[in-house]
Amino acid sequence: MSHKMTPSDAARIQSSQALGGKDMSSGGFAARAQSSAAHNTNANTSGGGQSRGGGGGSNSGGKSGGGGRK
């Protein structure tokens, strides 16, 4: 039987790794567990398939904001 990593599993792993003084780097086991949980959660919420393609949106660069204060 296969078990997919859940966000709850990842949180438990991260907690035990941190409390035990283990590797908490981006390449450590806890980070990989979190990534796997996110992947599984996203796969479940997107109807089971991977979506490809752009999501529209615009990136105008720079700052945008209202008028400044005087």
TrEMBL record:
Residues 1-70 are annotated as: Disordered. Residues 33-45 have a biased composition (Polar residues). InterPro entries: LEA_SMP_dom. Residues 46-70 have a biased composition (Gly residues). Residues 6-42 form the SMP domain. Coiled coil: none annotated. This is SMP domain-containing protein. It comes from Phyllosticta capitalensis.
